Amino acid sequence: MLFHIQKELTHKVGFTATKKIGNAVKRNRAKRRLRALFYKYSQKLKDGTYIFVAKQAINEISHKQLENDFKKVLNRSKSLKEN
Fold this sequence. Notes:
This protein is of the alpha+beta class.
């Protein structure tokens, strides 16, 4: 899940994972996976504040599927730059 607040000249990000995901190890792994994808796409994102919320299935899906879902969420929120 993604929350995006557009704001000029601001590029902030936050990652969160609730206890529903599992113990601390699983929550940290989920945030690391989201963080890696964010850094991969950060140059393509519009200015603003981004808050990524990890869901339960994040630790059970492959990296390829997670990346596809990540791109889909960014496209739906219209967070990607035009070029």
